[in-house]
Design brief:
Blueprint lengths: L3 H19 L11 E9 L2 E7 L12 E8 L3 E5 L3 E5 L6 E11 L2 E4 L3 E5 L11 E11 L8 E10 L9 E8 L2 E4 L3 E3 L5 E6 L11 E9 L8 E6 H4 L6 E8 L2 E7 L10 E9 L4 E7 L3 E5 L5 E10 L16 E4 L5 H27 L2 H5 L15 E7 L6 E7 L11 E2 L1
Antiparallel strand pairs: 1-2, 2-5, 3-4, 3-6, 6-7, 6-8, 9-10, 10-14, 11-12, 11-15, 13-14, 15-16, 17-18, 18-21, 19-20, 19-22, 22-23, 24-25, 25-26
Length: 420
């Protein structure tokens, strides 16, 4: 034991001496990298490469590098490698700088910067395409087991405001290491390409890489300036609507079910929205959920239409676009139930029967006349025209008897004779 203690002390001292040799001196001078270059390796992609400074001393320190992107957009990051890939639009040029750095605890030592630049490609201003938009969509591929889903790509754009009438545009896309040129174009009235369709691409349905799209052009009158654009797949992926939407009504219980959209993502990667529209009352409700089933309590004498849409959940990918609504599915019946209809018919018939019987009873018992006696009508002046005056003489000239008789026409009352 006594012998081991001096040996341990010797080893500890040697380790401290070696560590001191490897620690950089406080007056250490860091030199910038050399042979810094920028090389285009693909559409909207460059490779930055540099070498350590051969005059850097001591050489046994672990140097790192800081890369700063100056254009077209500012960015910076640190790396231990001497090369780095960068994805960026290039139609406006590209420039970057790099320096040597060394961390000493909380402090940082850094060299001066070295820079490199790519010039913007030639072309007249106002001749490149504008408003470039792209969308992707997933379709099922039943012909291959390796890739059961295929991703299509559709892009549209507008002609540059200063582009000549004979300008023709050509589109390319790059995803990962794959690059393709468009073969199916749509044209405007001057037969210039303004849209492109890729029915099958090398884009992965669940991919996270940037999609790079490049459009260049040609003209006999002027040089056409190219245009680059980067797309995040989650932002342009047009999700398919849910499949096989079904609905069933039992009393006041509405049950809705559906299947996940055609997609490379599994079932648990989708959020859903269900829209139920009450046609009779004219209002709808929208519910969000993560399962593929929904139950609701409804009015059982109304007709409804139901639609469902989907979006990839943030659990599986950055949130993106909602799908289109599924086709309307009509359920329910806005007609009244047969039992209710027959009840109303029976009720109306009973009321009519009771009214009829009441009327007959009133007639038989003369209740109607007693309750509502007739109002006497005034005598008509026309009867005066039917008065006949007869004069009789009774043997003497001194006495005259006037007999007035009323001749009754049919329809008038019979009056007794009056003698004056």
């Amino acid at each position: 034991m006594i012998i081991m203690v001096p040996a341990l002390l010797i080893l500890l001292g040697a380790a401290m001496i070696l560590q001191a040799e490897f620690l950089p001196d406080e007056k250490l001078l860091l030199l910038p990298p050399v042979n810094f270059t920028i090389k285009v390796t693909g559409l909207a992609q460059v490779l930055l490469h540099w070498e350590p400074n051969p005059d850097q001393k001591p050489r046994n320190v672990n140097l790192e590098y800081r890369v700063k992107i100056n254009a077209p957009q500012e960015d910076d990051y640190e790396t231990r490698n001497t090369k780095s890939k960068c994805v960026s639009i290039l139609h406006r040029g590209f420039s970057a700088s790099v320096q040597t750095i060394l961390w000493r605890g909380p402090s940082l030592l850094a060299s001066s910067w070295v820079s490199a630049e790519l010039k913007a490609p030639p072309g007249s201003p106002g001749t490149s395409v504008v408003n470039l938009t792209c969308t992707t969509n997933t379709v099922a591929d039943n012909y291959t087991h390796l890739r059961p889903y295929q991703v299509s790509l559709h892009c549209t754009w507008l002609v540059g405001k200063d582009a000549a009438e004979d300008t023709q545009y050509f589109l390319y896309y790059r995803y990962g290491s794959w690059t393709e040129e468009c073969q199916e174009y749509s044209k405007d009235t001057l037969k210039r390409n303004i849209a492109c369709w890729f029915p099958r691409t090398f884009i992965q349905g669940k991919g996270r890489d940037w999609l790079a799209v490049h459009v260049n052009g040609s003209s006999k009158h002027t040089a056409i300036k190219p245009f680059d654009q980067l797309f995040a797949l989650h932002a342009i992926d047009q999700v398919n609507p849910p499949l096989n939407v079904t609905a069933e009504i039992e009393g006041t219980r509405l049950s809705i079910q559906w299947e996940k959209p055609v997609s490379a993502f599994p079932t648990h990667c989708f959020d859903y929205e269900v829209k139920i529209y009450n046609i009779r009352k004219g209002y709808f409700q929208t519910e969000k959920m993560t399962t593929n089933a929904f139950v609701s309590i409804i009015d059982d004498v109304s007709k409804y239409y139901i639609q469902v849409r989907a979006a990839v959940s943030s659990m599986c990918r950055t949130s993106g676009l909602w799908s289109q609504w599924s086709r309307p599915l009509y359920v329910g019946n806005d007609e009244q139930k047969p039992l209710t209809r027959w009840f109303l018919i029976a009720l109306m018939a009973t009321i009519c029967f009771l009214l009829l019987m009441s009327s007959l009873l009133c007639r038989m018992c003369h209740l109607w006349t007693k309750l509502f006696p007739p109002v006497p009508a005034p005598k008509s002046n026309i009867q005066e025209f039917f008065v006949t005056t007869n004069y009789e003489k009774a043997g003497s000239t001194e006495t005259e008897t006037e007999v007035i008789s009323y001749v009754e026409e049919p329809g008038f009352e019979t009056l007794e004779d009056s003698v004056f």
